[in-house]
Amino acid sequence: MGALDRLSQLGNQISGGASAGGKAKLLEKNPDDIVVTAALRTAITRGGKGSFKDTAAADLMAGALKSIIERSKINPALVEDIVVGTVLAPGGGATEMRAAALVAGFPDSTAVHTLNRQCSSGLQACVDIANAIRSGQIEVGIGAGVESMSTQYGPGAVTEFSELLESHPEAANCKVPMGVLSEQMAKAKGVTRAVQDQFAAASFQKAVKAQKAGLFKEEIAPLKVKYEDPKSGETKEIVVDKDDGIREGVTVESLGKIRAAFAKDGSIHAGNASQVSDGAAAVLLMKRSTAEKLGQTILGKYVNASIVGVPPLLMGLGPWKAIPKVFELTGITKEDVDIFEINEAFASQCLFCANELGIPAEKINPKGGAIAFGHPLGCTGARQVSTLLYELKRTNQKIGVTSMCIGTGMGMAAVWVAE
Amino acid sequence: MASLLEARTPGFNPYSVKYSPYYDSRLAVASSSNYGIVGNGRLFILGLGPQGIAIEKTYDTNDAQYDLAWSEINENQCAVACGDGSIKLFDLNVPEFPVMNFHEHKRETFSVCWNPLTKDTFLSSSWDGTVKIWSPTRPASLKTLPVGNCTYSASFSPHNPSLISCVSSDSHLRLFDLRTPVNAKYHLVAQIPIHSPPSIPQSTILPRLSNGTTYAGAIPNEALTHDWNKYSDTVIATGGVDRTIRTFDIRNPTGGPTAVLLGHEFAVRKLQWSPHARDVLASAGYDMTVRVWSDGSAMPFPQEENVIRVGQELGLMNRHTEFCTGVDWCLFGTGGWVASVGWDERVLVWDAHTLLRR
Question: Could you tell me where in chain B the CATH 2.130.10.10 domains are found?
């Protein structure tokens, strides 16, 4: 009867259930691709001690947003929505992030909201913006993330659990501290201290090498902030353009001397877990057709992302489950991926996921990770985008994955293609 | 492949192929111009001889042809499912025009199947969401079974003349038993969700496949084809858009699949159990392959709770250069001869034994 009906029926039979086309499809350039035209971050500095210790989260965000306008030369009035991932801010940081956007130079017509999906908030922010663009809701948006763990990290981060939540064993597990459950997971999965220390030392060594070679220069936007010298007590203005958590000379031997933090016979310590840090990152997203019209330089494109749940006590397994799912969504395999940016919440979980998925060490975090330069919770997901895209570009590679585990037992992964 | 016979259907893209139940040398192919999207249909009657495959007769229809069924009662007759909703009965002794025209379906007729036991009826399924039962001698249908959504494939049980099965775009396998009274359910006796995992009340163990992965089921996808096992009277295999072939035991409608066959890279368009071995079936898919499988039932299998058997692919025929749409086993001879058709306008006849991995 209707030829068009028959055609669309056949089309559905062919596209339905099939994997999403694989590598060749991924490398295609289409006008409706969601592309990144600028991605940057502030330096990431040590919580309580580093250069941003006296800088509020909103000030970091304002700095990053201002830099993204300067760098992309986008007319700020064209940015319709900004999503900021932030975890620790009271009230979700909604008020001060709106204010930060105004400070950065966005007009009042640019909407702002914040979100909190724990350690993946920065990535979730980018994904939300990409989806809003894909659905036609907005044309240009910014996915961002920020965390000032110096000023906002503390016991107040989680509300006291009610009796109801405490009465449900799996629900109660949601508030087991990360370190404790990672310790249990490392034990259960047989990830020894020796391999964790090895992984952590490698992270430091890679980061030192990358920093010396100036590989972070492209992604870091320098920021001028006030800093109180802890010795003299005098406040001065400094320009921060370098991650200060990266330490030289870290070896397996030096890590081996650190005492375990969560259990006497434990394997996790300050040297093989992510650092408490401050930082902000932002990613400017739009359709390829829009980017071409605006004359924006395309760094790469966002393909798709996955979100999965795992048992709360095994939250470190997040990437192990999320990465295969994003492969299914995009139709690629691990062999197609050139670089994996997997957040190093703990050496134990990152290593376990990589081993289980069979990802070779040289493909993971080539410039080091959160163990070496820190994990400002809300920032990390957005930070990984700039780290990944500039490294893919520098090494003339194409496909990258960013992924992280998420507190309370989730995982997220996204596929990006550099251009 | 040493032994491969080939015929062409120029200008027409085949949708279905069937061996005659009477002659080992006769085949029929239902085909459509322009991939069945718009245009005429043509029925090809093919003869296998020492010179290869010869086109003996053709019958044209105004709309596409999607399926055919040989009459079980008259060796010269053949029913064809047409895109205009009609079913046309052709007689090889009558040139050009059908001897009967059955037109009740309001949309494309997608499948026809002759009752192999009583031989006096055949059925059809359609995009209009119904299955109809016909007598070859009466122009109006004997019965209409409502399905409610596009029914790609319907079939009589080869073991019981009253049992009818069908699969449709809502991802369900339905069973009708004509012996039951026509109550509110119109003979419907079972409705098996193809995509669902086994429902195991009060169990915390997730069902697993025998290859170790958990089987959580899938999103419902269109089911395009199914067939009754020729030896076990309760086993049906299904295939469709989700690329997966599953077998079900109709005695346990909520028990999930008994075997899962993984390998097709696109939708499974047609599957057919072997008439010669109880565990073997062939499937044709949009990935341009015809695959021969064992459902694993002939192999030892540890009886573990909640473990679903993963079948084994025995061989893959990749000589088609377009979507494979039809496959049928020859009933005669040593067993193992298969005819397949695809949108590449070709009919291939080959011996499945040459594919088997030893």
Answer: 14-193, 204-357
pLDDT at B12: 97
pLDDT tens figures, A83-138: 999 999 988 999 999 999 999 999 999 999 999 999 999 999 999 999 999 999 99
Closest CA to A319 of A347, A342, A340, A302: A342
Report chain B residues touching chain A, CB-CB < 8 A.
35-38, 83-85, 107-108, 150, 218-219, 221-222, 224, 240-243, 265-267, 269, 286
- Name residue B277's amino acid: A
Reduce the DSSP state of residue A62 to 3 states and report it.
Answer: helix
Level-2 CATH architecture, domain B14-193 = 7 Propeller (2.130)
Rounded to 10°, the helix A121-134/A380-394 angle is 80
d(CA B290, CA B53) in angstroms, rounded, equals 20
Q: Which residue has the tokens 């001065």?
A: A236
Give the C-alpha separation, A39 to A49, whole Å: 26
* Partner-chain residue, chosen from A7, A9, A18, that has the shortest CB–CB distance to B243: A18
Q: What is the dihedral of CA A331, A335, A340, A342, to 10 degrees?
A: 80
- Say which residue the tokens 């999103």 belong to: B219
**Rounded CA separation B233/B251 (Å):** 10
- B/e letters for B173-197, b = 16+ CB within 10 Å, e = fewer, are bbbbebeeeeeeeebbbbebbbbbb
Strand blocks (E) in A139-188: 140-148
pTM for this predicted structure = 0.65
Give ipTM to 2 decimals: 0.83
- How do residues A199-227 score in pLDDT, each as one tens digit? 999 999 999 999 999 999 999 999 999 99
Q: Which amino acid is at A270?
A: A
Check whether domain B204-357 has CATH 2.130.10.10, yes or no = yes
In this structure, what token pair is assigned to residue A320? 């192990």
